[in-house]
């Protein structure tokens, strides 16, 4: 079998994440050829599997923005270590330790 080829039993269905096909003990497909969602979405509107595409994109944007801002905030702190250490009794190592405790 060439690299990247799927066995006939698996075919393209393995390329869709979050889906499964059911087989009995003899290897016969009992899902009727349909892809079943795994995990199956509940009826709860707050289940992320039931969210609208816009809400999913908003959630992804929030997580991405938070990640970028945390990296930016951490990088900004390095510019004040020396002036802050000179104006206080806390050394640079103490500042680094105090800030690392926050993250």
UniProtKB/TrEMBL annotation:
The keyword Transmembrane applies. Keywords: Membrane, Transmembrane, Transmembrane helix. The chain crosses the membrane at residues 60-82. This is Major facilitator superfamily (MFS) profile domain-containing protein.
